[in-house]
Amino acid sequence: MKYGVRTTDDSREYLAYAHSIADDFYFANNYYIKYLGYPLFLALLFKLGVGLKSVIIVQTLLSGVATVFFYRTTKLLAGNALAPVLSTFVLIIWYDLQLFHAFLMTESLYVSLLMYGFYLVVKSNSVRQSLWALPVLLYVALVRPNGFIAVVAYMAYIVTVAYLTAPTVRAKRTLLLSITIIPTLTILVVDQYLLQSFTVVETYEKGEVIYLYKGLLVHSAQPIIMPPADASPLTKLYLFVRDNSSYFFRMSGLRFLLFWGNVKPFFSVFHNTMIALLLWPMYIFGAIALSKYPISLPVRVFGALLVLQQAFITTITSENETGRFLMSVVFVVFAFGATGISWQIDKWKKQGEG
């Protein structure tokens, strides 16, 4: 609390929304209803007589509890003592993630709940047990619009379990055909609800790779053709890609690299070096862990989809100057990465003993 409560422009809107709930039980049907889970959280604390500094303390305490469950999650994944120690250590020292707990923003609550939901999925031995994760993941979807990725990942987890336990090949084929409803419903929700208040395609004209950062822009040698203003968000996206393919893929390609690499042109050399030394190896060993049988396929699908969906969203929208979009799911990378590292060390030990 040395620097007090940290706020942004969005913080003031969350606070106003929370006070309208706490004081009048009024839910305004505006842009911030898509972040309803966070004002609800704030409203509950305000009803309990909690001040803003205490909100930050509560967020920090929740992150601490989530970190304990994260430790247990990695231990369940790896089956040894090294991986949870390593993953939790990296998580705690990762400043780009930990700084959000001091802000009146959605990120802290979002990440804490998602980490807890991840634990409930990993520890489940059956679909019935995994249902405990569903309310948590549904609330995650209320905290931030892109929280729908948690629900989609859980649906994929359930479908994978159903596929693996299907009694016949015909049943598996039928299941595979029926799951086309998942991406269809996702597209409808994204197009007709989540993106309605966002100007995604409209920002493409600026050539910004990192939102509001003018030091890295993509330029087009040809006039940029914008889609009709009255088209739906995903229709606009399709038309823009069709009419400005080279420009779009150059811009999105840079976002893709910045999301995964996490380095930024305005970070210090030390900052970028630490990211490269600590994060990038986690990707390699995380991929190794995802390819190994000891971790159940449904869990691997759930974890991988969380990160891949966020990567796709960032690629087609915009990267953030703080890298906060990766930070919302980086714990998954740490969990699988530390698991892969611990398994590799065990392998080296066995080879040395042999």
TrEMBL record:
<feature type="transmembrane region" description="Helical">
    <location>
        <begin position="102"/>
        <end position="122"/>
    </location>
</feature>
<keyword id="KW-0472">Membrane</keyword>
<feature type="transmembrane region" description="Helical">
    <location>
        <begin position="175"/>
        <end position="195"/>
    </location>
</feature>
<keyword id="KW-0812">Transmembrane</keyword>
<feature type="transmembrane region" description="Helical">
    <location>
        <begin position="297"/>
        <end position="313"/>
    </location>
</feature>
<protein>
    <recommendedName>
        <fullName>Dolichyl-phosphate-mannose-protein mannosyltransferase</fullName>
    </recommendedName>
</protein>
<feature type="transmembrane region" description="Helical">
    <location>
        <begin position="325"/>
        <end position="345"/>
    </location>
</feature>
<feature type="transmembrane region" description="Helical">
    <location>
        <begin position="269"/>
        <end position="290"/>
    </location>
</feature>
<keyword id="KW-1133">Transmembrane helix</keyword>
<feature type="transmembrane region" description="Helical">
    <location>
        <begin position="77"/>
        <end position="95"/>
    </location>
</feature>
<feature type="transmembrane region" description="Helical">
    <location>
        <begin position="31"/>
        <end position="48"/>
    </location>
</feature>
<feature type="transmembrane region" description="Helical">
    <location>
        <begin position="142"/>
        <end position="163"/>
    </location>
</feature>
